[in-house]
Amino acid sequence: xxxxxxxxxxxxxxxxxxxxxxxxxxxxxxxxxxxxxxxxxxxxxxxxxxxxxxxxxxxxxxxxxxxxxxxxxxxxxxxxxxxxxxxxxxxxxxxxxxxxxxxxxxxxxxxxxxxxxxxxxxxxxxxxxxxxxxxxxxxxxxxxxxxxxxxxxxxxxxxxxxxxxxxxxxxxxxxxxxxxxxxxxxxxxxxxxxxxxxxxxxxxxxxxxxxxxxxxxxxxxxxxxxxxxxxxxxxxxxxxxxxxxxxxxxxxxxxxxxxxxxxxxxxxxxxxxxxxxxxxxxxxxxxxxxxxxxxxxxxxxxxxxxxxxxxxxxx
Length: 315
Ligand SMILES: Cc1cc2nc3c(=O)[nH]c(=O)nc-3n(C[C@H](O)[C@H](O)[C@H](O)COP(=O)(O)OP(=O)(O)OC[C@H]3O[C@@H](n4cnc5c(N)ncnc54)[C@H](O)[C@@H]3O)c2cc1C
Known about the structure:
Layout: E1 5-9, H1 19-31, E2 34-40, H2 47-52, E3 57-61, H3 70-78, E4 85-89, H4 92-105, E5 109-113, E6 115-116, E7 122-126, E8 131-135, E9 143-147, E10 163-167, E11 198-202, H5 212-221, E12 225-228, H6 230-234, E13 255-259, H7 265-268, E14 276-281, E15 294-297, H8 300-314
Parallel strand pairs: 1-2, 1-4, 2-3, 3-10, 4-9, 5-9, 11-12, 11-13, 13-14, 14-15
Antiparallel strand pairs: 6-7, 7-8
Helix pairs in contact: 3-4, 5-8
The structure holds flavin-adenine dinucleotide.
Flavin-adenine dinucleotide binds at residues 203-205, 229-232, 243-248, 260-262, 264, 266-267, 270, 280-283, 286, 299-301.
C-alpha cells in the first residue's frame, strides 16, 4: 500500500486538540506527503495547532451543539474525495466515527493499533501485550486505522496554520438524532493521568479503600497523578477513570510507582512504556519486578508512609 495522502481525525479538548490527536498527526507527517486533519465543533478554531503538527488542510464538519459527532463526521468523510488512509484516535467518539465510516464505505477497520509504517503495516498487541500482530489491508481502498493513545510522540514541526475547508454533511435522517443530555467531568486536582510525568498507582496490596489515600498523597507530593489496577476499581475502592491497563488508560510517564500491584499482563500493557518503573511489593516473585527498574520488596504499609514522610519534609 502506498500512502501519499493521509487524514487524521482530530478531537478538540479545552485549549487545543487532544494529546492522542497530536500524536497521530505527528506520526502521519513522517509517512505521507500530504496530511490533513478532520475536526468538528471547537476543533475548527485550532487550525494553527493543526498546521504546527503537520496538517496542511483542516477539514471541518458542522456538528450541532449537543449532538454526538459520529454520524455527521463519518457521513462527511465518506462523501469527500478520500485519502489513502485515515488515522483515528481510540476514544469514544473516534471508535464511533470509525465504525460508521466502515459501514458507509464497506471497508474494514484495523483497531487497537500501536504502530503504522510507510508500507501500511500496522502493529497490534494481543494477549495482554505478550504478542504483537502485524496486519495490513489486502484489498484496495481507504485504510481505516484506530490507534491507541501514547503509540507515538507528539512533536510540532513548526508548519504554518492549516487552511480550513468545510466538508458538507448529507441529510443524516434518524442517525443524526442522538443528543448529549448530560456531561460528567470527573473531579481531579493535579495533572491528568495520561499526561502526568509521575504516576503513583495502587493495587490490591494496599489492603482496603482507605489505603489509597497515601497513594494519592504521594502522587500529589510528586506533582503526579494517582492510578490504579483493575482489581481495586472492580472492588469499588477508586473510580474507573484511574484504571491503568488493557481496559483502562495507557500511560507513559517518566516515573511509574506500582504499589501492591502484582503485574498482570493486562496491567503491564498499559504502563510498561514508562521510562522508569519502581515496584513496591511484599512478594519477591511478583511479575511486576520483571519489568521494574527499581524494586522494593516490602510492605506498602511500611514503605509508603516512610516515602510520604520524606517527601513531606522536602516540600
Ligand atoms: C480482559 C481483561 C482485561 C483486564 N484489564 C485490566 C486493566 O486494564 N488493568 C488492570 O490492572 N488489570 C486488568 N485486568 C485484571 C488483571 O488480570 C489483574 O487481575 C489485576 O491487574 C490485578 O490487580 P492487582 O495487581 O492490584 O491485584 P493482585 O493480582 O491481587 O495483586 C496484589 C499484589 O499486591 C501484593 N501485596 C499484597 N499485600 C501487600 C502489602 N501489604 N505490601 C506490598 N505488596 C502487597 C501481592 O503480593 C500481589 O502481588 C484485566 C483482566 C482481564 C481478564
